[in-house]
Amino acid sequence: MSSTRALVTGLAGFTGHYLALELAAAGYEVHGLGARGAATPNFHQIDLTDTEGLRRIISAVQPEVVVHLAAISFVGHDDPEAFYRVNVIGTRNLLTALADTAKNLDCVLLASSANIYGNSNGGIIGEEQPANPENDYAVSKLAMEYMARLWEQRLPLVMVRPFNYTGVGQTERFLLPKIVGHFRRKAKRIELGNLDVWRDFSDVRAVAAAYLGLIKAKPIGQVFNVCSGQATSLREAISLVEEIAGYKIEVTVNPAYVRPNEVKTLTGSADRLHAVLPNWKALPLRQTLSWMYEAP
């Protein structure tokens, strides 16, 4: 009996790496797409703006499940137009190619973002929370969600809104890897932006496990937060790494790192996810930070 074919866009990226491990361990035949080459079996280098190229690859692979991770995901990216070109138009090109050429699709999981909820001053955010995007990245992801609805009758879509997550291999452009990296190098001081922010942090391994669970469950047409359900302040995260590393670091605020449209608090409800995946569990942030700090 042949394996189920899974196609992952952004396979060579941070999340794609861990999802590929989950899929392979579960017996899937994993194929990948990416704008940059990768020394990975069944990997196809292609830009999402190449609709005809996407059709050719999808026609050849004939995936049964698709996970769309490819995106410009760094909020501070210096080319705002890229958010829309990749996150909206690129996704539209992919959905068009899938609808035109894929014959046996069971599930197409699209990764949106909890950033669409914008600035929350308290409480737990459920999927019914009105969107209030505060930056171009969030606007592009919300636009992607609305655009994807045009394919609801033609494709088996599932949407996920991951909150902040991290792990070994994430670039130091992101907050927690930057902090952990400074401690791994035994730095005496670190420059950060706004210290008074609270985030719902998850472990990338738990996020990948959630995506695999949703692929198997196939709750078509639904939207899911992927989150721990607990907010941790930046100050608390620094303290955790200080405990792990065994020393304190001098923290200074660099005004250049303070974003005028910073989302101050973002905490999600994972109730809907747990209803579909009752055995899924988030990992404690300290465990994730220890893994990152102790990584070879």
Quick recap of the structure?
The mean pLDDT is 94. The protein is α/β, with parallel strands linked by helices.
Can you offer a commentary on this structure?
With 296 residues, this protein is an alpha/beta fold. The protein is 37% helix and 17% strand. The protein contains nine helices and 14 strands. The chain has helices spanning 14-25, 51-61, 80-101, 136-148, 175-184, 204-217, 234-245, 271-276, 285-294, and strands spanning 5-9, 29-34, 43-45, 65-68, 107-111, 157-162, 165-166, 189-192, 198-199, 202-203, 223-226, 232-233, 250-253, 265-266. A seven-stranded parallel sheet has the order 3-2-1-4-5-6-11, covered by helices on one side. Strands 12-9-14 form a three-stranded mixed sheet. The chain has a two-stranded parallel sheet with strand order 7-10. Helix 3 links the parallel strand 4 and strand 5. The protein is globular and about 55 Å long.
Secondary-structure map:
Layout: E1 5-9, H1 14-25, E2 29-34, E3 43-45, H2 51-61, E4 65-68, H3 80-101, E5 107-111, H4 136-148, E6 157-162, E7 165-166, H5 175-184, E8 189-192, E9 198-199, E10 202-203, H6 204-217, E11 223-226, E12 232-233, H7 234-245, E13 250-253, E14 265-266, H8 271-276, H9 285-294
Parallel strand pairs: 1-2, 1-4, 2-3, 4-5, 5-6, 6-11, 7-10, 8-13, 9-14
Antiparallel strand pairs: 9-12
Helix pairs in contact: 1-6, 2-3, 3-4, 5-7, 5-9, 7-9
